[in-house]
Amino acid sequence: MKKKIGLIYILPWLIGFIFLTLYPFLNSLYISFTDYNLINKMNFIGFENYTKLFKDREFINSIIVTLKYTFITVPLQLAFALFVAFILNFKLKGINFFRTAFYIPSLLGANVAIAVLWRFIFEPNGLINQILNFLGFSTISWFSTPGGSLTVIVLLKVWQFGSAMLIFLAALQEIPKELYEAAEIDGSSKIRTFFNVTIPLITPTIFFNLVMQLINAFQEFNGPFLVTGKGPLNSTYLIAMYIYDNSFKFFKMGYASAASWVLFILIVVFTLVLFGTQKKWVYYSDGGND
Q: How far is CA 206 from CA 45, 244, 255, 266, in A?
């Protein structure tokens, strides 16, 4: 009886998982082997979509841009999140307010209004250039160069560090104070204590945040699409944007599904690589690295 009651409780989740996750997931795999365009009947064409993809310079460029974007944003975001979490771990007056304030960008980062605002502040007469001019620097045309456009969307992603920060903060608060006291008695400096005590103890959290932020960065769409679009010379044309264009602009659903599966395989490969390296640098509470 208890098993039946439990099944009833999880039934809504099971229905949602099967019809909203599993079925679309498997269906997209089948569609990737067809020339489906939302209008005509599906025709099975085998690996033709995949063959065309790797001959498509625009697709190859989108992979390169996505890799570049991911490898820049993820380390910067995690480093900044850890730095802020470390500061917010101190018992200061009004600290709860600052913890909330620093988390808000993660809630608003994908918002259309925030993306429009972000684009506005990087315009030639925007806030950033006004600050640079005040400091004696010349105006930067952020959206007219590949490097400038990529910098803008990287900064937008790094600004959304709140979720990783909260997880880091929780991990920092779990570190026993006795370890810091012992390090202080041994004459360890603050910096040395941070790298020899704090960092090793939160490596599981670093690993978790690294995996999650890597997956999110590979799938990034809203910010780059709304702020820079493709960017000059397709410098901010991420894979997610390439998939969107082929799906809803050109109605090449089979081709777009194939690109989606290539993205999925990329995410799986890099995630597996991270899991393969964790034994060398992630330290768990049982004293092992497994």
A: 43, 32, 36, 21
